[in-house]
Structure formats: structure tokens, C-alpha cells
Amino acid sequence: MSNNDHRNSESADMPSTHISEDDPTRSPILRLHEITKMYGEEMAVKDLSLSVYKGEVLTLLGPSGCGKTTTLRLLAGLDRPTSGTIDLGETCIASDETFVSAEKRDIGLVFQDFALFPHLTIAENIAFGLSNLVTDEKERRVNELLDLIDLPGFRDRMPDQLSGGQQQRVALARALAPKPSILLLDEPFSNLDVRLRIEMREEIRRILKTAGVTAISVTHDQEEALSIGDRVAVMNDGHVEQVDRPEVVFQHPQSRFIAEFLGQANFLSGRIYDTHIETGIGVLETNCIDGYRNEEIDILVRPDDLRAVPTTQDDSNGYVIHRQYSGSSFIYRIRLTNGNVVHCLHNHTERHEINTPVRVDLIANHTLTAFPQLEKTA
Ligand code: ADP
Ligand code: MG
Known about the structure:
By secondary structure, the protein is of the alpha+beta class. The chain has 8 helices and 21 strands. It folds into 2 domains: about 180 residues, 3-Layer(aba) Sandwich (Rossmann fold); about 110 residues, CATH 2.40.50.140. Adenosine-5'-diphosphate (ADP) binds next to β2 and α1.
């Protein structure tokens, strides 16, 4: 996998929304403030705060059971928070005193089980939420959406004549039809097979960006989150641990949990001296790291940050202990002389055998994130 696989796909006709978390010039369209949701004794969401800006696609990423669906249900008005407030634009939609019901929220939903109405045509499915429009306007809007989802000839088909991916696009069009101010998507691809899911990432981002809708898309799949979102909010155990652009959460995670959840993470143990750090791959400059500084650190490295070159035993700093082939690339697992284990991503043409002595070097062109070293357990 190349580094680029973690980036959003962007093309000329697709506006990209780059928003820094504390941009004072923009006010959020949606603001969750210290939201908690209890189900009996179970705290599904804990003190969660999050702002969403107009026109952005925010992905909510986290392991199963961390509270993603609960958060969306609270936003949609399907559940009421135990405490905290939710503001949509200038209006408070949930607080101790206020609760605006789901129908009055102007929020669109595409949930996991996105079933279309089987007895209605594709056009009728899309028009379902448009009862307030006169026939001409309804026709125009349906045609616009059929073009948007690239199914212009499908208006009179029945849902069971469509593939899974096509049905999913129709579900998206149905939710977009009434022009909701926010669209919520809960694991929208989980019913599709892997290959289709990957195709749909690109397609769904194109549709959302072209529609210009503000969207929150929930997933437990890190590649999906990184490739769809303008920003990614990483959730753990009921709260948001970090919100930022995909490349920032990937390269500069604020916690070991995020580092490990977002992809292959290895740690180089290092000891800081004034201007340099001693590590298992040699001496690094202190300005190559950011984040935590202490005498003893662990530096996050991902497979594309390192390169392993075969060399003589004397010149080596480690050796190959495992090789994983994925068609286009090899991932080498290397045991460094100091005991650290790291992974290195190489092109499929660079084939090294197990036990080959190698010299591992840092090739990252960005600063690396350092964490305090974990207490050693005997
Ligand atoms: P996710 O979507 O991230 O997988 P959920 O929001 O569905 O997580 O669930 C978060 C936690 O809240 C889980 O521990 C789940 O068991 C619990 N939970 C969710 N809904 C309910 C409910 N209706 N009653 C009791 N517990 C619930
Ligand atoms: Mg869920």
C-alpha cells in the first residue's frame, strides 16, 4: 500500500474543505457540548464535545462499541442525551430543557440497514421525502439526484433490479433529496463486499462534495475514514480523542490508542541527549520529533517511514524476521539489534530473504510523534 492510499481522493471538480480545528473565522453549523448518554448503568457516550463546520465531511472513527451510533442517534433526535447540549446553527436542539424531535431537525439519515422501499420505483424512492414540492419541482429534483448518483436511466427500475452499490447510491440520493442541513451516515458500506466498499469510498466522497452537504459519516474502518473525511474524529470509549485532518491524525496521533488504531504502528525506543536522540536505527536529530519530550521516549514509526537495505553483518542494525507479500508491495518485519521490532514497506521488486542483515534508515519527510516510554513490566 502506498502512502497515497491514506489520502483523500481529490479531483479538479471537487472542492476540498480544509478546516483547522480552531478556525476563528468560521462558526460551526453543529456543536455538541459535553454530551453524555446513559443506557441504565451503561455510559455509551461520555462528555463528548465536537464541532462540525458547514460543507465538511467529518468521519467519526472508532472501534465497535465506542459510542458512534449512539452519537448519531442523539444528533438525529432518535435519542435524548442524559446531559449536555446540541446546537444546530443558532438553534438548541437538545439540552436539559429542550428537545427538538427528529422530524423537525432537518437532518438526513443513511443508516446501516439502508433498505429502499421495495414496492416503489427508484424515482419514487428518491422522491419519498419531497411531498412538499409540486410535481414539476419534484421531477426536476429527482432527475438532478439521478444524475448526481450517476444512475440517470434507472428512474423506473425497481430496487431489486439494482446491485448493492447502486441501491446504496439511491439510498444516499433519497436522504439528500430534501436538502438536509446535515447528513448522517452510519457505516453506510457495511453491507457491501470489500471490493465494492473501496469503490464506494471514492463515489460517496464525490457525491457528498458535489452536493455540498455537511456530512458526518461513521465507520470502524480506518482507511475508509481517512479517505472519505475532510476531518476525522477518533472516538474511544465514549469520547472523542482527537479531531483533525486525516494526515494529521495519521502522522501525529495524540495517543498510543490512536496511533495503533489508525494503522500499523511501531515504536523506536529512544533516549534524548541535548541535540540528538539515540535509537535502534542510529542517532536522530531532536528536531525530527514533536510531541512528548522526556529522556526516555518511544517514537512512532509507520512502515512507509522506514527503509531496510541489505548490508554486511557489521554494518547492520537489524535483520529480517518476516516478510509479507501483498502483490504490489512487501512489508518486512525487522528485529533491530536493540530488540525493537519495526515494519518497513518496500516495492514488490525489493525481495529480501528471512534472516538477511539489514540497515534500517528513517526516510520520513515529516516530523515523528513521540510518546513517553511505557513502564517496563518485568
Ligand atoms: P458503536 O456504534 O461505536 O459500535 P454504540 O453507540 O452502538 O457503539 O454503543 C456504545 C455502547 O452503548 C455499547 O457498549 C453498547 O452496548 C451500548 N448501547 C448502545 N445502545 C444501547 C441500548 N439501547 N441499551 C443499552 N446499551 C446500549
Ligand atoms: Mg454502530
